[in-house]
Design goal:
421 residues, alpha+beta, eight-stranded antiparallel β-sheet, 16 strands, 32% strand
């Protein structure tokens, strides 16, 4: 039994640019499928406005309404459909999409994109935008500015299309980069990363003081001061998560009320996936005055209700933490320099949050702040792994980095960009 592969994912475009597009997924169920779909949608720069999920434990039916997060965003809808097919278990035929297997795709090969160019404002964001449009996923980054005004960029990337081994795809990537860099580009090379890079996970070294301030689940004093600048931050302190085991004989009802932000459904689905919770039925309501309501009927992976009190408390705590702090942002001193730090949790599968590097570089570009160096790495605590983004910033007349008010404003604007406010 099943349906044709072409009908597993259907995309109905809106009649006007402002009307949401409707994405329908109809396929065999698996734990974490909702998380995988939401990650791909976020990767394409789309915002989920509402959604419905239902499953009988074997087959699932998911409907998501999405809009563009930016009017300047261009979406390849055919490519999005193909990408959404990749995590779906096969129906009538084996998944031929990019040679992925639904039972466990092999890791994508890691490539090293290295280019040398003259420095200019907004350079890093322009390059990142091209990579996003080409569906190349940034795994690690090392960006260094030389004393003579040149920039050496090392991007460790994987290809969502699994075509980067072909000369055509490599030439296409270099052509797009040369087009955006123009005369600033000195050289551009793309090659398969050697085994010496494959074994390096790019773990960031953070001092215990910085790690505590960045990764603490409670608001720091600096962030508390930011609330005076940002009313949106006050919304984050009011999430409610309730569990009810009386309404349904077979399912646990999870009710969530929280402030809306970009990637909210992904954050919730990611948390449920990592806690080994599956959704039998769920409704993700439209935003009302900046808040969202969700009713999710959930079960353990073995099909039982979530009865254990300790697991209930842990689940509610994890969800509240993700709604309060889906992304961590702070500015600190690194020797004589000023460093902007951004961190987000890594899924247990090892996948990071999409488009963080793009959003941060876009915010800094809007502010006219130059990035002296940048780095992406992983940092582990006793409970989880984090993806940490580090940016050494250059002083500007408008944002003197020695000034606490200027620092607070940078953090506020970067966070707003990440959250979609």
């Amino acid at each position: 039994m099943g349906i044709p592969w072409d009908d597993v994912v259907l995309i109905q475009k809106g009649k006007t640019p402002d009307e949401p597009c409707v994405i329908t997924v109809n396929c065999p169920d698996k734990v974490g499928l909702g998380c995988d779909l939401c990650r791909i949608i976020l990767e394409f720069g789309l915002w989920i406005t509402k959604g419905d999920v239902s499953t009988d434990g074997k087959w699932c039916y998911i409907v998501l309404w999405v809009v563009l997060s930016s009017s300047s965003l261009r979406v390849d809808w055919d490519s999005l459909k193909n990408r959404l097919l990749s995590p779906c278990p096969s129906c009538l035929v084996s998944s031929f999409f990019y040679n992925h297997s639904s039972n466990g795709p092999s890791p994508s090969p890691l490539y090293l994109l290295k280019f040398l160019c003259l420095d200019r404002k907004g350079l890093l964001n322009d390059v990142t935008k091209v990579l996003c449009q080409l569906e190349l996923i940034i795994q690690r980054v090392k960006v260094t500015t030389t004393p003579d005004g040149r920039v050496l960029d090392l991007f460790f990337i994987t290809d969502s299309m699994e075509l980067l081994h072909t000369k055509k795809r490599q030439d296409e990537t270099c052509q797009h980069l040369n087009a955006i860099l123009g005369d600033y580009c000195i050289s551009c090379e793309l090659q398969l990363a050697g085994p010496e890079y494959e074994t390096q996970h790019g773990f960031s070294s953070l001092s215990s003081e910085v790690a505590e301030g960045l990764l603490n689940c409670h608001l720091s004093e600096e962030e508390a001061r930011l609330q005076k600048l940002s009313p949106d931050m006050r919304k984050l302190k009011k999430p409610t998560v309730m569990i009810d085991n009386l309404l349904s004989p077979a399912h646990t009802l999870l009710q969530i009320h929280c402030a809306d932000h970009k990637g909210l459904l992904y954050d919730i689905m990611r948390t449920l996936k990592d806690c080994n919770i599956k959704i039998a039925y769920g409704r993700f309501s439209s935003s009302i005055k900046g808040y969202r309501d969700m009713d999710l009927f959930i079960q353990n992976t073995d099909g039982t209700k979530v009865i254990d009190q300790e697991k209930q408390i842990a689940l509610c705590s994890c969800l509240k933490e993700e709604m309060l702090h889906p992304l961590r942002v702070m500015i600190t001193n690194r020797g004589p320099d000023t460093e902007l730090l951004v961190a987000n949790p890594v899924e247990l599968s090892g996948k990071g949050r999409p488009r963080v590097f793009y959003d941060v570089t876009f915010a800094l570009k809007k502010l006219g702040i130059c990035i002296f160096s940048a780095e992406i790495g992983r940092y582990s605590t006793k409970n989880r792994q984090w993806e940490v983004y580090r940016f050494l910033l250059d002083d500007t007349h408008e944002f003197p980095l020695a000034c606490s008010k200027a620092r607070s404003r940078i953090v506020d604007i970067v966070r707003r960009t990440l959250m979609g406010w």
